[in-house]
Amino acid sequence: MRKPARIRVEKPDTMECRACGATMRLFGIEAHPAIAGIRLRTYVCPRCDHVQTQAAPMPAGRTARSVNGPAHHNAFDTETTRLLCAAFDAAWETVLASGTPLEDARQTAAVRELLAKHIIEMAGRGERDPQQLVENALRLLPRSPSAEIEAG
Q: 66 - beta bridge partners?
C-alpha cells in the first residue's frame, strides 16, 4: 500500500505583526486596484492594531471577496475610507478623553469594534459628514461599556 503524499499546510489567514510580533488576523481580501490577477490580503494585529497588506496571485477561476462578504458590495472608495478612518480616530480620542474607565484589553477592543461598526454602518447608509459620523457613533455606545460587554 502506498503512503499518501505529504501535504504542506500553510496558514494563509495569519501573519506576524512587524510592529509587535503578535499573530495578525486576516481582515479582508480584495482585487488589486491596478494589477489584474493579483489580490490584496489585509491583516490586522489584535494587540496593537497595526495593519499589513500582502499581494498574492489570485487563484485561477476565483474572484476576490471580503472575509465578511463580497467585496464589491461592501467596499468603500479611497476617499470614503480615509473619512471613516478619521471619524473612527476622532471618536476613539473622544472616548479616551472622556475618562470612561475601560477595565481591560477585551473591553477596549469591544468598544473600538462597536465604534467601527457604527461608523461603517452609517457610511453604508450614505452619511459622509465626519462630525455626524463621530457624534452618532458615540451616541450609540452604551453608557457603561462594561455593562454592554458583560451582557454580550
A: 69
Domain of residue 141 covers 76-151
C-alpha cell at 19: 510592529
Q: Using one digit for the tens of pLDDT, what is the confidence trace for 96-116?
A: 898 888 888 888 888 888 898
State the cell numbers at 39. Answer: 489580490
Rounded to 5 degrees, what angle do the CA atoms 92, 43, 59 make? 145
> What 3 state SS string does 128-142 have?
CCHHHHHHHHHHHCC
Residue finishing a domain among 25, 45, 71:
71
The answer to whether the predicted template modeling score (pTM) of the entire model surpasses 0.85 is: no
> Strands across the sheet with 51-57, in order?
14-16, 23-31, 38-44, 51-57
| 3-state secondary structure at position 94 | helix
